[in-house]
Amino acid sequence: MPEQASETRAAIDMESWVCPAPLRDAPNIVMGHGGGGAMSAELIEHLFLPAFGPAADAGMGDSAIVDIGGARLAFSTDSFVVKPMVFPGGTIGDLAVNGTVNDLAMAGAAPAVLSTAFILEEGTPLDELARVAQAVGTAAMAAGVKLVTGDTKVVDSGHGDGVYINTAGIGLVDQRTDIRPQRAASGDAVIVSGDIGVHGVAVLSCREGLQFGTAVASDTAPLHGLVAAMIETGADLHALRDPTRGGMAATLNEIAKAAKIGVSIDERALPIPSEVRDACSMLGLDPLYVANEGKLVAFVAAADADRVLAAMRTHPLGARAAIIGTCVADHPGMVVARTALGGTRVVDLPIGEQLPRIC
């Protein structure tokens, strides 16, 4: 019996398991710390910021705006560890470029230059690396940015998943804008640029043993052109964010907390493709928590909402834009959803992550 039990444990391979909601007082790093939810926020607040001390800026957001020589520049950095590194609709290469471009765009900046750093696992086939590198170059050209500096490191076999990429970007901020989470205000309209949950389901669809009835391709795309069209309306754009890790739920909660306002959304207004809804239903996932890579959420003054929505719908990446809710003075720091049955539910900040290694 002991030998049989040992063989069973070996076959199950428990070390590969990932807890979707790990204990928040864990003494070691767990996957949830990288999920963009409450555990990520606590890691920054209780470990990184105290360790950095006075050297840290209190903002520590996806991007920062700095004034250098009279110019307002946006600066951002991000790392990409998606598994697998090639998925329906994209690769880790275009994901890295578009993700950094979008962080700059969410500050109202026109992206200009990027850095690229590759962490390669020993034994990775050169043709796979070439495919990823070509995707980086193609995405950079499509976004109109230059790759101006970079680095390459190699780690031992078994200590990586082929290719990890770190990117940093700099962009010039439009002087007409003041876009930041703290500016979201009671009465603002909450607008999403299109279908949600697509990227997360696309990556999930090619994970081991998971097949869905219909093909879903990632929505990864550079959003600065869409943001520029929104700015050109002259509207008062208060806050923009691309809802990546943690999905819509994490983004809405972060902005509600930063602005000290409540957010009320209508679940019936959420643009969720049927294939995403079906996949989430089958797996017991909430589409609000599934990652996106080519969508944005905008908090816009109510008087300007229709004008911004119309401009978004004329752009290819905003054709399915929709107003999904409003900001309210009630329940500050909390997101509440009105259900199709007429009830309400609280949409909490996720603790860890539903889907590990999604970006």
UniProtKB/TrEMBL annotation:
Gene3D superfamilies: PurM-like C-terminal domain, PurM-like, N-terminal domain. Residues 61-173 form the PurM-like N-terminal domain. InterPro entries: HypE (IPR011854), PurM-like_C_dom (IPR010918), PurM-like_C_sf (IPR036676), PurM-like_N (IPR016188), PurM-like_N_sf (IPR036921). Residues 186-331 form the PurM-like C-terminal domain. NCBIfam families: hypE. This is Hydrogenase expression/formation protein HypE. Belongs to the HypE family. GO terms for biological process: protein maturation. It comes from Mycolicibacterium chlorophenolicum.
